[in-house]
Amino acid sequence: MSNKKYDVVIFGATSFVGQILCGYMWQRHGLKGEVSWAMAGRSRTKLDEVRSDLGSGSSQIDTLVADADDEAALREMCAHARVVVSTVGPYALYGSKLVGICADMGVHYCDLTGEIQWVDRMITAHEETARRNGARIVHCCGFDSIPSDLGVFFLQKEMARRFNEPARDIRMRVRKARGGFSGGTVASMMNVTKEVMANPSLAKKLGNPFLIAPENPGTRQPSLKVPEYDKRARSWLAPFVMAGINTRVVHRSNGLMHWSYGRDFTYDEAMMTGDGIKGRVMATGMTAALGGFFAAAAVPPSRMLLEKFVVPKPGEGPSHTEQEKGFYDLRFYGVGADGEHVEVKVTGDRDPGYGSTAKMLGEAEVCLARDVDGEPGGFWTPASLMGDALIKRLTEHAGLTFTVLDGNQ
Question: I need a surface site. Which of 77, 193, 323, 346 has the fewest CB within 10 A?
Fold first, then answer.
């Protein structure tokens, strides 16, 4: 066991999702639960405000002051933590220094980034250091990309149990989802667009499905760009905005687990819009809207108008009521080399981006602190490092379900 003062330090406790995460940790663990934890951020006043809002007794939660650009303060914070969880984004702008410090100091780390270009840079810059010092770094521990990564992991275990072989192809379909965007998510998306416009060669890198995999096996991957009909799901499909992140994480998991899904494994994600003419019209509309948003974001004048008048600003997001009314229902269709098939459903009981993401991140950080001792340092994924242990925590505490279907559900 570590002699660190805190099992977990939440850096960015005053951010939109950081506040939700602190509320979840207070509800789950209080002051003397399974883990010891503290709150950290750049403003003592704001930290005190967030802490006081948690309820009776919360004034005893420790707070640490550190700015994302203050290396000395970040090192002091990390000196007291087994695990640091960061909600400070966009990570490409504010997250790099902390990851490097955690790798250097042997401190475990997780976050909820969906900025895959930044994840690639962090792996390139710090993986050897993290391995040498025993730091376990796990990006993408929110809706990007725990449901996708663990959904595939769960389905592959069922394929192995039933047929003694992996699914060679898995298609994830978002059957239903309700939830709003926050300003932090939009800011991250805008920053990726700005990076691509400043460096057009980045677009080609982002198009590589094996961008963050340990190696590129060269298997051609499906990628939905236009509406199409899926006979298995019995629905028209539209592109899913998070597919470019989640698919990369799943392929890294496969590589880190010694290509247990197979080097010829294929995977994609899409949104279901329903059957018939109505489903086709909805798929066409959603595809056009998504394309229009990214086209507008790519041009500075229209991007400025989006940021000023259309999208939420940093610190803004769905209300508590909207979070509680949110949900998601994901379907995974797996097919083996000889046509064997398994269907899996993964659901969450809050809005995917914030209510559920905060609970997933809360369980991931505790799993990282408690369940994976003995695993080597390096840059992991949720499935490759935490797998069954994290699924157990998510289903027992975080409102997720992982269910094998019989084809009629």
Answer: 193
CB atoms within 10 A of CB 257: 16
For 325, the 3-state DSSP assignment is helix
Closest to 341 measured CA to CA, from 388, 407, 274: 407
Residue position matching structure tokens 């707070």: 63
Fill in the amino acid letter for 316. E
Q: Is the pTM of this model over 0.85?
A: yes
Task: Note the residue count of the chain.
Answer: 409
Alpha-carbon Rg for the chain, nearest whole angstrom, is 21
Alpha-helix runs per DSSP H in 266-354? 276-297, 300-305, 320-325
From the list 126, 122, 10, 133, the residue with the least C-alpha distance to 66 is: 10
Residues of the chain with pLDDT under 70: 1-2, 180-184, 309-315, 407-409
Instruction: Tell me the backbone φ, ψ of residue 81, rounded to 5 degrees.
Output: -120, 140
CATH superfamily, domain at 6-142+357-390: NAD(P)-binding Rossmann-like Domain (3.40.50.720)
CA dist., res. 213 & res. 218, Å (int)? 11
The predicted-structure confidence for 110-124, as pLDDT tens digits, reads as follows 999 999 999 999 999
Residues pairing with 329 in the sheet: 176, 347
Where are the chain's structural domains? 6-142+357-390, 146-353+395-405
State how far the alpha carbon of 336 is from the alpha carbons of 29, 66, 147, 169, 234, in Å: 42, 50, 21, 7, 20
**Which helix H or strand E contains 274, and what residues bound it?**
strand 266-274
| Tokens describing residue 121 | 């840079």
